[in-house]
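note to self: dont lose this again. the chain is below, predicted strucutre after it. 185 aa total, dont forget to put it in the shared folder this time
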Amino acid sequence: QIRQGAPYDIFLAADARRPQELASEGLILPETVRTYAIGRLVLWSPDAGPVLAGPSLVAGQVSPVAMANPRTAPYGEAAQAVLARFPLPESVVLVQAENVGQSYHFAHSGAAQAAFVALSQVQDKGGRQWRIPDGLYPPIRQQAGLLRDSEAARHFYAFLFSAPARGRINGLGYGTDEVVDDDGE
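---
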């Protein structure tokens, strides 16, 4: 939509690749591309029961398992990195979703026993989850950039990187460890 001239002022992406591409094409002001949140990956099941973890995957105790497409979705790429460290036995069925929302839906609906999803999707939900340690997958840097340099857009963009906004972003299940506001905080 941005490439077709959609009248947006700010682009908030779930990854770093797309804002960088748009900046290189001159569609985002390059100096404004910044990470606003760090996505956190979890393996989630809506069913209460044993704790999910890497060893339960390797042991084949969870099947089927859903994950987003690693070619198009940052959470799928992260899940693929985890599975490289915790290879699934042949008995485990891996269900590929188009995106992390569909991955969640597969588990929520019962089509999969568990799914790799964003912590933000399930932190307040029941069931069980394995909050996968950050070092087991590449950081999911969610970046933003200004498409148009208007006063309103600059004001909102500045707020997005402020301490109050970072607190809200953290409260929603994202990290902001690498996000710094204009004051260096």
